[in-house]
Amino acid sequence: MYNLEEIKNKIICGDSLTELKKLPDESIDCCITSPPYFNLRNYNVDGQIGLEKTWQEYIKKLIDIFGEMKRILKKEGTCFVNLGDSYNGSCKGGKNPNRVHIQFGKAEEKERLGIPTKDKSLAQKSLMLIPHRFAIAMIEKDWILRNTLVWIKPNVMPESVQDRWKKAHEYIFFFTKNKKYYFNLDAIRTAHKEVSIKRAKYEQGRNALGLNSSSIGKKYLENKRYFGIPVRMVKLNPLGACPPDYFLVNTNCSENNGSKEHYATYPQELISKPILAGCPEKGIIIDPFFGSGTTGLVAKKLGRNYLGIELNPTYVKMAEERIRIQTPPLL
User: How far apart are the first and last CA of the chain?
Assistant: First the structure.
């Protein structure tokens, strides 16, 4: 069993499921991660997740991992999981070698693409709904799904498709293990819209004139007796409004935000609000698919601790160097 103080703010090189089993119960404040998507990329390391023969096998592996995650999260812990979808019958994996991913001006090698997905139980060309299947499986394991957050990508890359809209969003599922959990709404509030401010002033004016109660109209109970309706009280929180359930965030488009050696990094801005809302200051955030280390990088910038687990030793070294350079020690 690991001593958490000894591995805090470090990266463990190993298999996620194996390493999670070595962590103590209810010791982690928050999980923020993005598992490899189903059959979309080959990270060229033995034991990797994402290249399973069936989506059922892929989902089962993830559920096993998040079963351990549920054990190590504190009672008030939170969990954010970013997942993208896959198409059945995709030509990815070599059938069309010209369709390569471009990032930082560099074409992704064909060998790094996934394998074609051919599930006979699903219609060819159909979205497989992998994120939704994962979320349902998590609910069946008694996780509480609090939000399906949508990541909208204004600068999404063009696609050479002629018979559908291009993909410009992904999902971030917000899970908790209990009904009561840590959530700092004040840390992520947004400015009130002008229309909300005007509406509040209008309703407050009606209250002052005693007009709101009668303007609502009459209602009655089952015995047909009419009852009065309380005057509407409209008061805006001075710290701001509750934000909507979507993030309008560009994909990585610079080496400062991502890593030119890792082709599936999420933007730092994307996970800043989940960290601020879902993890207390000096709390520990775990990412069992650490990759290039974005979760750890943003955690340190925002005054939290991190714990990474990464299977690929090359990525471990990359993430350690990236975090060291971009988060200098506080004086």
Answer: 33
Query: What are 25-44's pLDDT values in tens digits?
Result: 999 999 999 999 998 877 77
Q: 301 near 293, Cβ under 8 Å?
A: no
CA distance 32 to 302: 14
- Cα(165)–Cα(94) distance, integer angstroms: 23
What digits encode the pLDDT tens for the residues 255-266? 455 444 444 578
Pairing state of beta strands 226-227 and 219-220? Answer: antiparallel
Contacts of 144 (CB under 8 A, 6+ apart): 175, 176, 177, 178, 179
The pTM of the full predicted model, rounded to 2 decimals, is 0.83
Task: Give the SS3 label for residue 313.
Answer: helix
Angle at 98 between CA 96 and CA 103, to 5 degrees: 125
Per DSSP, the three-state class of 6 is: helix
63 vs 25: CA distance, rounded Å? 18
Distance CA 310, CA 319 (A): 10
Taking only the tens place, the pLDDT of each residue in 214-257 is 444 445 445 555 444 444 556 788 899 999 999 999 997 544 55
Is 117:150 a contact under the CB 8 Å cutoff?
A: no
With b for 16 or more beta-carbon neighbours within 10 A and e for fewer, the 29-44 pattern comes to bbbbbbbbbbbbbbbe
Residue 239's CB is within 10 A of a number of other CB atoms, namely: 11
Q: What's the pLDDT tens digit per position in 89-134?
A: 844 444 444 445 444 344 445 444 556 667 888 898 899 999 999 9
Contact 278, 80 (CB under 8 A): yes
Band of pLDDT at residue 200, cut at 50, 70 and 90: confident
Beta carbons of 28 and 284 less than 8 angstroms apart = yes
Sign of CA dihedral 91, 92, 93, 98: positive
HSE of 215 in the Cβ direction (CA atoms, 13 Å)?
A: 9
